[in-house]
Amino acid sequence: MEIAEIKQQLSILTVLEHYGIRPNKNKMLCCPFHDDKNPSMQVYAETNTVFCFSGNCSKNGKAMDTIQFIQDKESCTKHEAIKKAQSLIGAVTQQAAPKPTIQPENLTEIFAKLKQSFYSSSKSRAYAESRNIYTAKLEAGYNNGTHYSRLKNCIVFPLKDRENNIVSFYGRNIESKGKDDRHFYTANRKGLYSRSA
Ligand SMILES: [Zn+2]
User: Fold this and answer.
1) CATH code of residue 137
2) Which one of 10, 112, 165, 192 is most buried, by most CB atoms within 10 A?
3) How many domains in the chain?
4) What is the CATH number of the domain that holds 20?
5) What is the pLDDT of residues 158-190, one digit of tens each?
6) Residue 54 C-alpha to ligand 1 middle, in angstroms?
7) Higher pLDDT among residues 59 and 196, named by residue
8) For 97, which DSSP code?
């Protein structure tokens, strides 16, 4: 990972939090690099840097970025600081990662239920008819949220792999009025589009 990439992905707040440092509401904190009683270090979240305003501080006068902060906090080499920064990004990514992907068997079961909902819901049928996608051949489900909270209010199309297993869902929200929030894929978007056969 390039240094620029690390700096882009790693928030200064994540770094501070890692060291148990919380800025106050003015985004100031007690500088960890000098004996600081009144917070004299300013956090610049936009640029992911901090700046110590104290004349008593060896860090005074220059902005510190995430890697520099780690390097000085750990008294380590830049190389080690970069490694540390990468591990912090990894930790963040893991936290943000979605829950384990639903197994294909479950998707098949879920889709069987959604398919029933599709034919029993006048709303979804009317929508499909209006869009000329309502054919007997069409494999589509409707998710009112009863069986599957994700893709709620969506017409759901299965995405399949070459073995015809459902590996993911594509959802078209028929309740949404917005233009950009109508289309959804489940996390595991690796399927080929549903074959009509
Ligand atoms: Zn300082």
Assistant:
1) 3.90.980.10
2) 10
3) 2
4) 3.90.580.10
5) 888 888 888 788 888 887 766 555 666 665 555
6) 6
7) 59
8) S
Check whether residue 121 and residue 88 sit in a common domain: no
- Please say which residue of 96, 120, 149 terminates a domain: 96
10 Å CB burial of residue 25 (0-12, 13-18, 19+) is exposed
The runs of H, that is alpha helices, within 44-133 are: 66-74, 78-96, 104-120, 122-130
Top-confidence residue, 95 or 80: 80
Q: How far is the CA of 37 from the centre of ligand 1 (A)?
A: 10
Last residue of a domain, one of 74, 96, 118: 96
Q: Specify the 3-state DSSP secondary structure of 78.
A: helix
Ligand 1 centroid vs 49 CA: distance in angstroms? 13
Range of the domain at 82: 3-96
d(CA 168, CA 184): 11
Q: To 5 degrees, how large is the angle CA 59–CA 60–CA 63?
A: 75
56 CA from centroid of ligand 1 (Å): 7
91 & 9 share domain: yes
What separation in Å is there between the alpha carbon of 35 and the centre of ligand 1? 7
Q: Are 166 and 104 in contact (CB under 8 A)?
A: yes
d(CA 137, CA 79): 59
Burial 92-128 (b: 16+ CB within 10 A, else e): beeeeeeeeebebeebeebbeebbebbeebeebeebb
58 Cα: distance to centroid of ligand 1 (angstroms): 7
